[in-house]
Amino acid sequence: MTKIAVVEGDGIGREVVPIARAVIEAVRPDLEFFEVEAGYGLWKRTGNACGEETMADLRSADAVLFGAVTTPPDPGYRSVLLQIRRELDLYANVRPIRGEGVDIVIVRENTEGLYSGIEWMESDRACTVRVVSRRGSERIARYACALAKSRRHLTVGNKANVLKSDCLFVEVCTAEAARAGVPCRTCYIDALALDLLMHPDRYDVVVTTNIFGDILSDAAAYLVGGLGMLPSANIGERHALFEPVHGSAPDIAGRNIANPVAAIRSGAMLLSHLGDAAAAAAVEEAVRRVLGAGIQTRDLGGVAGTREFGAAVLREVGRG
Amino acid sequence: MTKIAVVEGDGIGREVVPIARAVIEAVRPDLEFFEVEAGYGLWKRTGNACGEETMADLRSADAVLFGAVTTPPDPGYRSVLLQIRRELDLYANVRPIRGEGVDIVIVRENTEGLYSGIEWMESDRACTVRVVSRRGSERIARYACALAKSRRHLTVGNKANVLKSDCLFVEVCTAEAARAGVPCRTCYIDALALDLLMHPDRYDVVVTTNIFGDILSDAAAYLVGGLGMLPSANIGERHALFEPVHGSAPDIAGRNIANPVAAIRSGAMLLSHLGDAAAAAAVEEAVRRVLGAGIQTRDLGGVAGTREFGAAVLREVGRG
Ligand SMILES: CC(C)[C@H](C(=O)O)[C@@H](O)C(=O)O
Ligand SMILES: CC(C)[C@H](C(=O)O)[C@@H](O)C(=O)O
């Protein structure tokens, strides 16, 4: 029995995840779902946002469907998402940007870079170490090259003209691309942020370090209607977690206006990860048809509510 | 006598700077210009891209008009631009993004963050220290707040949900904004990269750390026609350098197709820095009129050459 852990989390996570789950269940009634609590809400109730019990539950699952968690800028609070990515060693953050004339996959290294957690305060300055390891670069490069091999080509986003740490990253990625026989070029991350917007057709798979991927994928969301549209996968050797790129959006939570597309598409990525390409394609196709029929949430200029959009997708998958 | 050091540098720097200089000279024939050599070309000839003599020349100037220098990704080569910014302590990198419905100024901290130069290689990983100092944050916050005071409001781009070093940056900026009486809000840099594109009208002055400002300004160039349009100022207590945001673009160099607008507008910023708001406005207006007349370089979809565009701007300032 394949077991899917479901973490709604906070804010709009609680609205979009139930829809994504219902859509997955509709195409794969055989999967076993179980709810796992984590996040700011849990923390306020219990003092622990993601304790050992939560982690054990997540580890026991074949895949995790994740919503969003609120991270207060309280220095004492550790981001749940970062904790999970780290403890499950989810090293590849895969973010497809798909839409009219756009078909890009950003592969973001997800465990190191500026997210090293190595930080300290000196007398009058705060320091964070950006870490680029050979092993970390190698495994993300392999992941990105394997993906690019089945697609078209690879772009390595970097800032090697300033950061020596990126010379290592570029060296490893280009070597891996050569070995894999993948056409590859490098691009400075600032220039890339602009060129991706101006000429999305020139990009296919983009691999980059952690925070560059974070910024780049949000900027690229501009091409396809914003964050409400972007799904993501966080992949490790043994675990995998699927989540919309958007956050918990407390400002719009509980109002039935959040766009559930990102969460539903994350569900499709989960299905694909389980090896069920047909089910994944059915979900993607259902979303496309609903959007194409003009049923859209407010962020896209439509009037459909979160639940109404979800119901429309459910009808489509039922039909498919 | 006010002395302007002119550094053409490499690539298209050699094409756009002479035009910017001619435009400045046309409105201010009293300024004294002197050429200073620096960059990759000089390095290839002399083994030194920016030696003590160059630095002394730059220090002796009242302002520097700078083109672009090529930075080969050779680990032994140090970026001339970074060297100059550091040695002249040009702490504020000011990048106006102006165009149809867009009027934003990105104020980028220009001396620390990931550009600290504190880097090392451990056994199997490369590390760079991101440094955020209280003093560095205070002076850029003061600069940004003074600017925002004469405009509308301030946004502090940061990643304090991940980087403790950004908690300090945010704390200092918001405190300074409160003291200056400037309306201020904070925004995570990933969300900001997207929202700036989707809702440019919501932004006025944006202050952020070094590499975030680097990426954000390139992405924002999308709003106004790309890098060919973006000027910048690098401001310190004692020195100031004005340069297009674009690089030396070796791929298009020497073909009379580079867009000189960024360089000319950098010249306008230089005039404004010298206290001559009228001359700066005259140059800006001339550029606007020429563009409005449909005279545009290839990057904007036009057919005008670099020199032809420059000649048109010169005619306009002559007329004004
Ligand atoms: C919430 C935050 C810690 C996270 C990140 O920076 O990775 C988010 O922006 C993302 O992209 O998943
Ligand atoms: C060339 C490079 C060192 C420079 C930077 O990163 O600051 C450039 O991208 C810029 O924005 O001026």
From TrEMBL, chains A, B:
Coiled-coil annotated residue ranges, if any: none
SUPFAM superfamilies associated with the record: Isocitrate/Isopropylmalate dehydrogenase-like
UniProt keyword Oxidoreductase present: yes
Protein's UniProt keywords contain Transport: no
Domain Isopropylmalate dehydrogenase-like: 3-313
Database matches in Pfam families: Iso_dh
Entry GO MF terms: oxidoreductase activity
UniProt keyword list: Oxidoreductase
Source organism, top-level taxon: Archaea
InterPro entries membership: IsoCit/isopropylmalate_DH_CS (IPR019818), IsoPropMal-DH-like_dom (IPR024084)
PANTHER family found in the cross-reference section: DECARBOXYLATING DEHYDROGENASES-ISOCITRATE, ISOPROPYLMALATE, TARTRATE, ISOCITRATE DEHYDROGENASE [NAD] SUBUNIT ALPHA, MITOCHONDRIAL
Family, similarity comment: Belongs to the isocitrate and isopropylmalate dehydrogenases family.
Protein name: Isocitrate/isopropylmalate family dehydrogenase
